[in-house]
Amino acid sequence: MSPRIVLITGANSGVGFATAKVIAQASENFHTIIACRSLEKATSAISDLKKEETKGQLSPIKLDVTDEQSITEAATQVHQQFGRLDILINNAGIASQHPDLKTQLQQCLDTNVVGPVLVSAAFRDLLLQSPNPYSIYISSGLSSMTKTLDPASGEHFSLWKTYKISKTAVNMVAVQEAAEFRSTPLKVFAVCPGLVRSYLRGSSEEDITFGGKAGDPMVSGETILSVIEGKRDGDVGKLIHKDGVYPW
Ligand SMILES: NC(=O)c1ccc[n+]([C@@H]2O[C@H](COP(=O)([O-])OP(=O)(O)OC[C@H]3O[C@@H](n4cnc5c(N)ncnc54)[C@H](OP(=O)(O)O)[C@@H]3O)[C@@H](O)[C@H]2O)c1
């Protein structure tokens, strides 16, 4: 049986790296394409992944989600090398802290919304070649409008306004794709990876661990593995997390 081809954007760090590790360690039935802003970051991530036993194959690719040429070239390369894509994980993301509000919002939208829209458009024909394709958008519980309006919710107030706007927008990207491709085998999910250690908030120990509150990104990887193994198919088209579904 030929392995299922998985592509993860932003796979050199945090949730993306941990997801690549979980998938590569899970089974030889996955061939994971490690997509990063530079080929050097991708090959270095693969070296790090191979420090532990991996069952699935790993390939590097350059893919900057804010660079249309890079997206087109990556899709062409996957087409030439594999002829299809089974699982696309739009994971790359930022939480811009730029002091200028307009720039901060623009940066969040460029990477977290425009990027995934263009990446999905470039890879969709390849996904539709798969007998069992998955399109996964890494979102956040912070994106939930229902939770934001609930004073009892942890998401009611957050300083991360521009990031939240971008993640709510990417939910709509996922929902529109689910609606548009309803009559195809494509399964679309928005996934909250949970609050986990990564460089999203900065590079100090305090930022990485969110003051000790952030969990292990390998748990996020396990959630995403459960999606691509079909264990969450009952929640297709929804904003899911490890233990259930968030309201939009
Ligand atoms: N960690 C959490 O608690 C948490 C919670 C909810 C949602 N999320 C989501 O999880 C996803 C991954 O973030 P993370 O927490 O793992 O943070 P991270 O450690 O900062 O990883 C982000 C990844 O995205 C990549 N990236 C940024 N801009 C890119 C671009 N223009 N093109 C390609 N790759 C780009 C980064 O590459 P470089 O190394 O080159 O910068 C890095 O590999 C994001 O979508 C984030 O919103 C995280």
Description:
- With 248 residues, the protein is of the alpha/beta class.
- 43% of the residues lie in helices and 16% in strands.
- It has an eight-stranded mixed sheet with strand order 3-2-1-4-5-6-7-8, with helices on both faces.
- The longest helix has 27 residues, at 101-127.
- The chain starts with a strand and ends with a strand.
- It binds NADP nicotinamide-adenine-dinucleotide phosphate.
- NADP nicotinamide-adenine-dinucleotide phosphate binds next to α1.
The proportion of residues forming helix, as a percent range, comes to: 40-55%
Largest sheet: 8 strands, mixed
Order of helices and strands: EHEHEHEHEHHEHHEE
Overall pLDDT: 97
Number of helices: 8
Bound molecules: NADP nicotinamide-adenine-dinucleotide phosphate
Unreliable stretches, pLDDT < 50, 5 or more residues? none
Kindly give the count of domains.
1
CATH topology: Rossmann fold
Shape field: globular
What is the straight-line distance between the termini? 38 Å
Instruction: Tell me what portion of residues adopts beta-strand conformation.
Output: 15-25%
What Rg, in angstroms, do the CA atoms define?
17 Å
Strand order of the largest sheet: 3-2-1-4-5-6-7-8
Architecture (CATH level 2) name: 3-Layer(aba) Sandwich
Q: Total number of β-strand segments?
A: 8
Q: At the fourth CATH level, what is the homologous superfamily?
A: NAD(P)-binding Rossmann-like Domain
- CATH class category label: Alpha Beta
Output the structural class: alpha/beta
